[in-house]
Amino acid sequence: MPQKPLKWGVKAWVLADSQQSYIQYVDIYPGRNAIPQTHLGSSVVKRCLENSNLVGKGYHLYTDNFFTSPELFANLFENFGTYACGTVRYNRRGLPKDIMCKKPSGINLRGDMKFRQKGFLVASVWRDKKNVYTVSTIHDHSTSQLKRLVNNDGTFTRQNFECPKAVADYTCNMGGVDHADQYIQYYCYNHKTYKWSKRVFFVLMEMAKFNAFKLFLMSPNHQTNLTFLDFSISVAKGLVNGYISETRRGRPSLMPVENRLVQRHMPASFDKKSKCHLCYMRNRNNRQVPIKQTKFGCLECVKHLCLPECFSKYHTERNCYN
Fold first, then answer.
1. Checking CA distances to 24, which of 99, 226, 296, 320 falls within 20 to 30 Å?
2. Which residues constitute the domain of residue 308?
3. Is residue 272 part of a domain?
4. 248 lies in some domain
């Protein structure tokens, strides 16, 4: 998608609550070869509502101009029992051409607006910095106010402007998916991989963590001042708590533990000096032990060992590296 900040990736359609940003449904887009491109936005909205079990419950749905069309909103109102509102592209079919055009007459100054209604569908155009076109089955011709920054001789001040109620409600309720995406990107476990299935899996896991965080905050029996970072840390600690790997890193010992503890070993001298094996291993295990050089050791174990402490400790104690 060349107009997006991240132009390459896997597309996911998301249906989220507008107040809590709780993710209700996720649909991974498999591409144009798997799903026909005709009326793609309408088919996505219908599928999300059907699969999330929200049909016929009177919910208000807010969509952006990629999905919004008079045909879709009429279908949702008549067959799905769902009211809808959203911005719309002025060249969609079924819109009134006198106001849904590039330069509608009478829309010149900031705050100018016009309405058209056909049955339960209400179309409006409002002048902000540029024209904002909306279609709604929720609202009528009622108006509201929005605050906007205005430049007065280099001084920016906030002023109230009249606008359609549909625009004001759209501004308040449209950020659910964006808010969820923002939270998911904060502490996302997302390392590079060539397999798209891994990327999708980890993003879905982050969505599940975000939903759990929102449910945690909404629960009356839990603290409400918990941040998303604290919640993520607690989840990570809960997953790894009590787990200790029994696999020991590094090369395995040449001499089994049972042999070095039961057989008879005599100290001997090597031709060259080298690091004491026991001092080196104890220092590697975070013990504050200096690593000594010695030419003595055990020819049977083929290890350089300091005399007499390290030599006796290595051949008498099972956990001599601790």
1. 226
2. 257-316
3. yes
4. no
